[in-house]
Specification:
Elements lengths: L2 E2 L19 E2 L4 E18 L7 E23 L2 E12 L5 E3 L10 E3 L2 H9 L6 E13 L12 E15 L8 E15 L1 H6 L2 H29 L15 H15 L6 E16 L21 H4 L21 E22 L2 E21 L5 E14 L7 H14 L7 E2 L14 H12 L19 E6 L13 E20 L4 E2 L3 E3 L2 E3 L2 E2 L2 E22 L4 E15 L4 E23 L2 E25 H9 L17 E17 L4 E14 L5 E12 L5
Parallel strand pairs: 15-20
Antiparallel strand pairs: 1-2, 3-4, 4-5, 5-8, 6-7, 8-9, 9-10, 10-11, 11-12, 12-13, 13-14, 13-16, 14-17, 16-17, 17-22, 18-21, 19-20, 22-23, 23-24, 24-25, 25-26, 26-27, 27-28
Helix pairs in contact: 3-4, 6-7
Length: about 700
């Protein structure tokens, strides 16, 4: 790696002297060029079994390809490596054959041209190779060093880029041009060492030192008294307990709480932007040297911005024109965009008590423009667009009844006196329509996430991410009476994660829609440019509570309780479901050491016992929003406004699952081991017969190796 210092002269120049240490590379660090040839040939001739004298035509297959690879590595600076790679594939099959000029059944037969002659012909331009594919990629990264800058030495930042371009030729004679595609990815990671930021505040360090000193003193007194109790020393001779001092104890606890609020060691933030695109029917070339040519001047290839992924589309003027074609040609242009946000941190409230927090959001956009080219060379296009939002949330809403209640309130607010038409234009004019797709998404969101959760963004479907968490409390054995002294370690865990996902699509039918019946009323809907297509909300406690114990006898046990709720809603059919899953899991592991079996009296080995089991209860409630609204607004005497008085259309199914496993493993030697396993599963459902499945397995493994 060759570097030079273009700004060395600014060492003593104010303001710009920070550039004096910048070194820029002036030569590539490495260049690699490889080329390979691959050729295979096969021929066969079939005879008819009915008439052996009848000879079939000669069947020939010939593949002859050349692959060129080029790699350039260059360091712009010591911390910014750049890599360029390209791969070209050529088809030499047609250049490597010559016709036999025969007549009859073998009129299409050919002879092979020696490979060396083919290469000579290509070099001398007497033969030509057909490019089939071309691919190039770019990568670069940068990680500035802030450690030597005192003001921001607590900051770490890195960015990496990846982009590429691919060109695929169409079959020979199809006149469909080439298919081109590109990719782009930019990943940014920012880390804040919060602990180092807090260290800059001297008062916090003093508070930590005071807390550490007092904690050590208190622990020392407890340890001494515990040893005295274990040694049966008389109470009158034991070290006296600390005299209770309310003010002093409150100050000790308050100091602990204050320090815990500054226990965040690091905060990490990541953002990745990625996109990809594809376009068939491209009539240009692929070579890099043509990227800067004007398409009007003859040879040209996709511009540098498209090759690196910065631009998304190929101009329509560079597509095939289909002049004098037999029929219309459709050329769909596809583009995918993804934005991924994530953040995480960990808070250690106490030495044995920690909380991990994670935020996430994924935004996806898919667009397609289908270009139709007529034989006259005219262009027309149709666009479609869809996408998804997936965000970490707190899904603690009340559920379907709240959504139904909001829909009923929206409809009633839009009923004019003496009218049987429900329309927002003649109602309260709040922009909400009953059974409108945007209104249903809003009501679902507020019913399942909470009434204060608002939709944001240009489509009104994005919600602000909220963190999932995981809580871990170690050394719980110190707080468990009676049996805690028989434990080596005990850990309590609790975890929550929630996700809200909305799928959306571009709407081709906008504006006021024809009326539709709703019980004794008719409703008028108004559709916007973008609408949600599906909704999903997840709430998972996995586990809600878990206890893992390692006993003094080397026995390990674990027990946990899980609970999750998955709620979905299909916008088009107005059908939804709520799936509640809850259950218990337990496990036990123990190793019997140095066991002697009668069949192997001189061998002592370990027997590993493992017992695991689970009980799951799944309940699914399916409902029909439109049917429940028809029930509410088709009642005699006027609409039913109390949700609890409506006979809901919900259908409930449930399933119970019981699983258990008992396993015994014995290892005779390094090459011989055996295992016995008994499993039992049982499924009970309210709409299917009960199924039970016991299973017993026994196996012996013998490893044989030779040298």
């Amino acid at each position: 790696m060759k570097l030079f210092n273009p700004f060395g002269f600014t060492t003593n120049v104010p303001l710009v002297k920070v550039l004096s240490g910048l070194k820029i590379g002036y030569l590539p660090s490495s260049i690699s060029i490889t080329s390979s040839l691959s050729r295979d040939y096969n021929e066969s001739r079939r005879r008819s079994l009915a008439d052996p004298t009848s000879i079939q035509s000669l069947q020939q297959s010939h593949n002859f390809t050349q692959t060129n690879n080029f790699t350039l590595k260059y360091n712009l600076t010591r911390g910014i490596p750049i890599i360029f790679r390209s791969t070209s594939n050529f088809n030499l099959a047609n250049a490597g054959i010559k016709s036999r000029n025969e007549v009859g059944i073998d009129s299409l037969s050919y002879d092979l041209i020696p490979s060396i002659d083919v290469i000579k012909g290509i070099v001398s331009d007497t033969l030509s190779a057909r490019r089939t594919t071309y691919k190039e990629s770019y990568t670069a990264s940068w990680r500035p060093n802030f450690r030597n800058i005192k003001a921001i030495n607590w900051l770490t930042y890195s960015v990496s880029y990846g982009g590429g371009f691919q060109w695929n030729n169409s079959p020979r004679g199809s006149n469909l041009g080439a298919s081109v595609s590109n990719t782009f990815s930019l990943n940014n990671t920012l880390k804040l060492k919060v602990e180092d930021i807090f260290k800059k505040f001297g008062f916090l360090n003093n508070i930590k030192k005071a807390d550490q000193k007092e904690s050590t003193e208190r622990k020392a007194i407890k340890d001494i008294r515990r040893k005295e109790i274990e040694n049966n020393i008389a109470d009158s001779l034991r070290t006296p307990k600390s005299v209770p001092n309310l003010v002093h104890d409150l100050r000790y606890v308050a100091r602990k709480l204050f320090i815990s609020t500054f226990s965040m060691q690091e905060f990490s933030l990541n953002y990745e932007r990625s996109k990809s695109g594809s376009q068939p029917g491209y009539q240009g070339e692929s070579q890099f040297i043509y990227a800067f040519n004007n398409p009007r001047d003859g040879n040209y290839s996709p511009p540098f911005s498209y090759r690196t992924g910065l631009s998304n589309r190929i101009p329509k003027s560079q597509l095939i024109d289909n002049l004098n074609g037999d029929s219309n040609i459709q050329l769909p242009s596809n583009n995918n965009f993804n934005d991924t946000f994530s953040a995480r941190t960990s808070i250690k409230l106490f030495p044995s008590f920690s909380i991990d927090l994670n935020w996430s959001a994924v935004i996806t956009n898919r667009s397609t423009e289908t270009v139709t080219v007529t034989p006259e060379g005219d262009f027309s296009s149709v666009q479609s667009e869809s996408g998804d939002y997936s965000v970490s949330v707190w899904a603690f809403g009340t559920g379907y009844k709240d959504m139904l209640k909001r829909q009923i309130q929206t409809a009633i607010a839009d009923i004019s006196d003496g009218s049987t038409t429900i329309s927002d234009s003649t109602g309260n004019g709040d922009g909400r329509f009953v059974l409108n797709r945007m209104t249903m998404e809003e009501d679902f969101r507020k019913a399942y996430l909470g009434k204060n959760v608002s939709g944001r963004g240009d489509k009104g479907l994005f919600v602000i991410p909220r963190p999932s968490w995981r809580i871990s409390w170690q050394k719980v054995e110190d707080y468990i009476p009676f049996v805690g002294k028989y434990m080596n370690t005990a850990t309590l865990s609790h975890s929550y994660s929630g996700t809200y996902k909305v799928g959306w699509a571009l709407n081709t039918l906008t504006g006021e829609q024809p009326s539709q019946n709703l019980g004794n009323f008719s409703i008028i809907d108004d559709r916007g440019k973008y609408e949600p297509s599906s909704i999903r909300a997840e709430r998972r406690f996995n586990p809600l509570l878990s206890l893992n114990i390692t006993w003094a006898s080397r026995l390990t046990t674990e027990i946990e309780y899980d609970r999750s709720t998955i709620s979905t809603f299909a916008i088009s059919s107005k059908r939804g479901s709520e799936i509640l899953s809850q259950g218990m899991n337990f496990g036990l592991n123990y190793t019997f050491r140095k066991v002697r079996l009668k069949m192997f009296p001189k061998i002592k080995n370990n027997i590993i016992l493992s017992v695991r089991g689970s009980f799951k209860n799944d309940t699914e409630l399916s409902y029909k929003l439109d049917s429940d609204l028809v029930t509410a607004f088709g009642a005699v005497g006027g609409p039913i406004t109390n949700v609890n008085e409506i006979e809901l259309s919900g259908r409930e199914t449930s399933q119970k699952r019981i699983n258990g496993t008992l396993s015994l493993g014995y290892k005779v030697s390094a090459t011989i081991s055996s295992n016995f396993e008994y499993t039992y599963s049982r499924i009970e459902s309210n709409n299917l017969p009960t199924r039970s499945n016991p299973d017993i397995r026994f196996n012996i493994r013998i490893g044989i190796s030779s040298r």
